[in-house]
Amino acid sequence: MTLDIKICGLKTDTAMAAALAGGASHVGFIFFAKSPRFVDPAEAGRLRQAAIGKAKAVAVTVDADDDFLDDIVARMQPDMLQLHGSETLVQVAELKTRYGLPVMKVLSVSEAADLERIKPYVGVADRLMFDAKPPKGTQLPGGNGVAFDWRILAGLDAGLDYMLSGGLNAANVGDALRLANPPGIDISSGVESAPGVKEPALIEQFFRAVRAARDDRAA
Predict the structure, then answer these.
(1) What is the rounded radius of gyration, in angstroms, for the C-alpha atoms of the chain?
(2) Who contacts 60 (Cβ-Cβ below 8 Å, separation ≥6)?
(3) Both ends of the chain: CA-CA distance in Å?
(4) In sequence order, what are the residues at sequence separation of 6 or more whose Cβ sits closer than 8 angstroms to the Cβ of residue 130?
(5) Could you read off the pLDDT of 105-126 as tens digits, one per residue?
(6) Cα separation of 81 and 141, whole Å?
(7) HEC profile for the chain?
(8) pLDDT tens-digit profile of 160-216?
(9) CA 115, CA 118: separation in Å to the nearest integer?
(10) Buried b / exposed e across 42-63, counting CB within 10 Å, b at 16+?
(11) What is the number of other CB atoms lying within 10 angstroms of the CB of residue 66?
């Protein structure tokens, strides 16, 4: 099975280069003003040029209004929208039609019962992402470096297309792959030297850890 790997919260040319050199299938840009990973749509449009023909560029939004979404899509020209807020099923369907782009909907989980929320989105969202519930007091819906019990994903339908996110890093990605066997993984804070500061060496280390884990499983 091909494993999709998304490096999210990119802001610089060096981080983009490291993500693409490692073999990222997706590169993400954050359009949430409170995030240390926030990037201007025009700058994201410039950065995403390096990914053309190599990786899909994902615009990550949090309950963005129509005007902001129009600006993001026009300036960045993403390959996919990622909705990380409280967007409803109706909004997911409307945005797919409005922009003609695939949509990935993020659902926050912490226990098996939370997975019941998946069912309505199957067939509406093009892909799902499971992230840990944010800690109390944070204003960020994601990128908090918090993990959840990946074992709860092991029983999911084998055909469900999703990405696993939340607290991943080079030290634990092998466990995540072994316990959940996800079709895709997403990392942001786990390859940073400080909030919002991507470290190329950590990105390279993460990809090495993923390859080592997959080689171990294949052996």
Answers:
(1) 16
(2) 8, 9, 28, 29, 30, 31, 32, 82, 84
(3) 15
(4) 106, 107, 108, 109, 148, 153, 162, 163, 164, 165, 166
(5) 999 898 889 898 889 999 999 9
(6) 16
(7) CCCEEEECCCCCHHHHHHHHHHCCCEEEEEECCCCCCECCHHHHHHHHHHHCCCCEEEEEECCCCHHHHHHHHHHHCCCEEEECCCCCHHHHHHHHHHHCCCEEEEEEECCHHHHHHHHHHECCECEEEEEECCCCCCCCCCCCCCCCCHHHHCCCCCCCCEEECCCCCCCCHHHHHHHHCCCEEEECHHHEEECCEECHHHHHHHHHHHHHHHHHHHC
(8) 999 999 999 999 999 999 999 999 999 999 999 999 999 999 999 999 999 999 887
(9) 6
(10) eebbebbebbeeebbbbbbbbe
(11) 10
Which tokens is 59 given? 């615009």
- Answer yes or no: are the C-beta atoms of 200 and 164 closer than 8 Å: no
CB 76 within 8 A of CB 29: yes
Please state, in angstroms and rounded to a whole number, the distance separating the CA atoms of residues 162 and 171.
Answer: 22
